[in-house]
Design goal:
Chain A has 303 residues and is an all-alpha fold. Chain A contains 16 helices and two strands. In chain A, 73% of the residues lie in helices and 1% in strands. Chain B has one domain: MetI-like fold (Orthogonal Bundle), CATH 1.10.3720. Helix content of chain B is 77%, strand content 0%. Classes of the chains: A mainly alpha (303), B mainly alpha (294).
Chain lengths: 303, 294
Amino acid sequence: MLFGPDVGMKLRRSGYLYLIFALPFIYYLVFHYAPMYGILIAFQKYNIVKGIGGSKWVGFLHFGRFLSDPYFWKLVRNTLLLNIYNLAISFPAPIVLALLLNEVRSNGVKRFVQSVSYLPHFISTVVVCGMVVNFLASDGPIYGLIAGFGGKPSNFLLDPRWFRTIYVVSDVWQTIGWNSIVYFAALCTIDQELYEAALMDGAGRFSLVRHITLPGIMPTISIMLILALGKLMTIGFEKIILLYNGSTYETADVISTYVYRRGLLGADFSYATAVGLFQSVIGLVLLATANKAAKAVGETGLW
Amino acid sequence: MNSQKKLGSRAFDVANLIALAALVFVTIYPLYYIGIVSISDGTAVNRGDVRLLPVDPTFEAYLTVFRNKDIWRAYSNTIIYTVAGTLINLFFSSLCAYPLSRKDFYGRSVFTFIIALTMFLSGGMIPLYIVVRKLRLIDTMWALVLPGAVNTFNMIIMRTFFQGIPASLHESARIDGANDIRVLRSIVLPLSMPIMATMTLFYAVQHWNSFFNALIYLNTKAKYPVQIMLRNIVVASEFADQQADIGSVSTNFNVVAQNYKYAVIMITVLPIICAYPFLQKHFAKGAMIGAIKG
């Protein structure tokens, strides 16, 4: 009962809890809900001095401008392709790692590999990108290695054809271990008796993985996939900012980096907010669709 | 048949171990390589002689780094931002998590919904920037530590931990006349040290590594954290070099630059790499809790 006769008493009993909760609640209002309200400037010719109340409304003008911009398609293509390639490689990689580690008999080896594989997660994006650019530079070790084998290395950092590969490989390096933790957690919950029973029936190792292990972690895989699809439009922004440059915009420039350049470097707040909103709406649609699809095939959904 | 199966199984074990060994090598070697280049002689590095062990070990690159006053300042800025930011995170997160962990908190489900919603909906980069600017936080430390004061995902992990504390403890304390603030301070928090430790690690690493907020919110060079310095020295300069190469402009300072850059990388990752072996258990445990409950 939300508004029963005992509301007053319930409120009083929670009095100190409200006091405790006040500060974080204000935090959420100021730094999460106020920016959501700020989305309104996407429909305005926003003037930071006049504020939202005083700026002129322009309707969907900025969206129209963005959609008719020839650069629009390139941004959408880059955003989707980069994220789809990344999803195709970076998403299954931790699952494979968890499955492989699950087959290792020695607990010591298992723990050691796990510990090592988590490490890159704690290395900053700047350092990872620093390593990438220095290793791939024309005086770097990878360039030298290829040249040493008689190959003709391309100028990786300035060649738009290499950008996606560099991005995906470095992403796998950084995330494979840490992202596998969820799957380890799921593996622990599988009933050991299932394995024993299957072994009695003469099942081989491969069929154990196929018929017991994989189905056992399927709900986790499904939820992680939904979450990954929901982020499909947004991930990787920091790394792109660090790794791209004028000569790789062709493949590297995505919606969020464009928002950053137009909005913060170019101070075109309204237009950039409109572009950002366009991106979030597509992201939400993807999330909802993925959730629905997962439920339709009988897997666990987010809601 | 059976022995064939066993043979196949053994072959798989061997292949598996080789694959995992390769993963370990690929993970460790780049970091190790940076370490050995940073203490090798610049000319040997440029000849490509440094592969497995440092060549003509020298700490010259580090001495050059340490002579750079900007790096010292950036380093101390990062320490200040990390300590202040983490304290604010812990304070706000526990204040948020505790009421939400209490079943008798009136309005709990509504508040939980309001907060969980922010994991899926956000105003985006520009509206948040405008809020920070209106609050006059641009070019101050507060712009780095306040907008992310509560990480909702971490807060939910914390709430879940608080929920595991027996309700009878709160109740008996309240019967003894303690109010909820006292209960939080002298019963819940002391019992929650494991989760607080994990959260401290998560938040501290996040602050130590963060660069984007500093990039958009700070303008004064003297306030830059070390990650921004790192970006300017290691990433941006390399792109400049590459473009200079195309224009066939020779860059003579490259010999020094290479191990200098690697030394700068080393001093920023070393604190993490050194602490890592002792702390990784806590990290993984925290992520496990998040994975199971989240």
